[in-house]
Amino acid sequence: MLSKLHLSKSGYYNYLHRKPSKQSISKKERMQAIQTIYDDNHQIYGAPKIAKEMQKKGEKISQRTVGVYMREMGIKACYIKPYVKTTFDSDFSTKLHNILKRDFSPSKPNEAWCTDITYIFTLEGFVYLTSVMDLYSRKIIAWTDASIFIGQVKHLEFDLIRNQSH
Fold first, then answer.
1. Which residues are paired to 116 by β-bridges?
2. How far apart are CA 25 and CA 150, in angstroms?
3. In terms of C-beta density within 10 A (0-12 exposed, 13-18 middle, 19 or more buried), how is residue 125 classed?
4. Where is the HTH-like domain (predicted)?
5. pLDDT, tens digit, for every residue of 130-150?
């Protein structure tokens, strides 16, 4: 095998028993420190914050070096998106009338419908899912999803008209 690789036996055994260099020892210690800081901070910290933490402890290390080591280790910061309030309470009590009077079991199809709007968070942003359900059959008779809430009603009207014809 060594002859195929053009290596001598003595060179191979010298490599096996070689003591680690100061640089490789230092690199391992730094990588362990990076991993510790990364884990202690719930895997949120990236290279800039980890470098600052290490510098506070007296370690002379650059942000770039921390970034290189993190890539070698296969770790990266996880960004936690801040909570954004998407709905705001409004008082519609004077405008809305309770037609169903909490009777959610109509006697025939298409006598009572209910609707719901759900906000679904994705990596690209919110998707708004709007659906209309017939309370008699409990089936969804129309639904639409969109990344922009404006225009949802028009899509629902189209779906309702399309479903009424079937």
1. 131
2. 60
3. exposed
4. 29-79
5. 888 888 999 988 888 877 666
